Amino acid sequence: MKKNVYDTMPKAKHIIVDTDACSGCLTCELACAARHFDGLCDRELSAITIDADMLDYHFDYMVCKQCKTASCAAVCPRDAIFFDEQTGARCIDKDKCVRCGACAKACPFSDGRLPAIRKVTKYNSKFIIKCDLCHGFEDGPYCVQVCPKAAIHLK
User: Fold this and answer.
1) pTM for the full predicted model
2) CA atoms of 95 and 83, how far apart (whole Å)
3) Residue 71 · residue 45 · CB < 8 Å
4) Residue 7 has pLDDT above 90, yes or no
5) What is the C-alpha to C-alpha distance for residues 15 and 137, in angstroms, rounded to an integer?
6) Among 99, 103, 101, which residue's Cα sits nearest to residue 124?
């Protein structure tokens, strides 16, 4: 019997973007992908998404909310989503993940045009793209560090 994952979910930090300060340069997207995919700067592989309306000069964003009751973790058939001890981030164990996409389907923020978790097929491989607050990197979320407008914060 599968344990009740909701009982073990720690409080998590999360990324927020000040859309009034954002210039839409997409540095955060490219940096995110490059950090997690060995230098590959591909926006489709970024866990943070910036959507620009250049007519009104308005920006929307999406990044995993690190939900208190992470449905992504609860539905994972392989228990591949774990919690970072320092940040509480919901992270994917790439060795356990079978890239079925159940997490993306369960995420309440993945049904629109800016999904928080998504399944991507690219370069003859399948990926589950989800923010893990740069788990495994000592200097924390890279998008926060590289934003030239200081519009991205870890809260």
Assistant:
1) 0.91
2) 15
3) no
4) no
5) 16
6) 99
